[in-house]
Amino acid sequence: MKILFISRAYPPVVGGIEMQNYGIAKALGKLTETKIIANKKGKKFLPLFLPWLTLKLFFLIPSYDAIVFGDGVLSPIGAVMKFFYRKQKYFCIVHGLDITYASKNSFFGKIYKFVNIPSEKKMDKLIMVGNETINEAVKIGIPKDKCVFIPNGLDANEVCENHSRPDLEKLLGRNLEGKKIIFRGGRFVKHKGVDWFVRNVMPRLSENYILVVAGGMVAKKTTGDTNDYENIEKAVQDLNLSKRVILLTNLQRPDMKILFSTCDLYVSPNIKVAGSMEGFGITAIEAGACGKVVLASNLEGLKDAIIDGQNGFLVESENAEAWINKINETLSDNFSRKEFGEKARQFIIENYSWDKISQKYLEEIKKTISN
Hints:
By secondary structure, this protein is α/β, with parallel strands linked by helices. It has two domains: 2-153 and 353-370, Glycogen Phosphorylase B (Rossmann fold, 3-Layer(aba) Sandwich), CATH 3.40.50.2000; 156-351, Glycogen Phosphorylase B (Rossmann fold, 3-Layer(aba) Sandwich). Helix content is 44%, strand content 16%. Helix 3 packs parallel to helix 5 (107-121). The model has no long low-confidence stretch (mean pLDDT 93).
């Protein structure tokens, strides 16, 4: 079994797809011969990477059994290659935005709908990172039997480090004595629910609760989700919450690990946004792997990442009262966060480690090839 893994988004660039592609590609390499071709220079390099990749594949593909594309953006190249090389099997990992982007009323959204979606249909198998992604795919005409759900994974040892409260105080530049830290990681985009959370939940929580939001800024000219940082910043200013809400942009991975290791509670308060969705919710399981209690909206791919009562708790999306009550419950002295966190970490290691996930990938690839 020889696999050719192709990624247009890969470390050292930081992001959800980048970490997912890196994790599964490396894990597959431990199971079978796997060659990785990846763009490691970000979106700006794509206009050069894509034609170079297309040309290179004409020479490489005959030597491999399975071709795996890291996301739906690359599916048109897969469709072209399949036209010329029919013996191989073609797979595409599909994230939430790979499907919902087709519904955007924009020039690039229309191109994606009429080029990428038909190309995804031509793949032999689409590996969906969430069940809700499958549901959305079926709505736009992708056959359900072409889709299979395999969750994202992680390397718990890579995410989790031993850090102390003084490390967090140094990172944030303030004294945190008597404070409880609520952490939310991820890009500053609307469906992550930070603006909603700041406006509807934070004003009604204890003055001792501090929200730290850390994530990547979205470029103004991006073809994906638009940046929501300015709206979040305005919410903080409107409600005079500058002492209780800390926004950190484009934080490096080592600093993110400090937050994962030292926060008191992790939240994913996602909301429903037309034309976008949470495919899985990797930061939620990263927090759980670090032994933290996770509260996540009972919405979209978060329902696949968080199993209620096992590695976190699901809360009704946009129900401020439910969020306030659950936060107060889990941050109270009567709730054993350490005990629950240890249980959550073990659950995640047993179900979401790359060793487990890569086995599922390989089984699906073998099954598709044998059919």
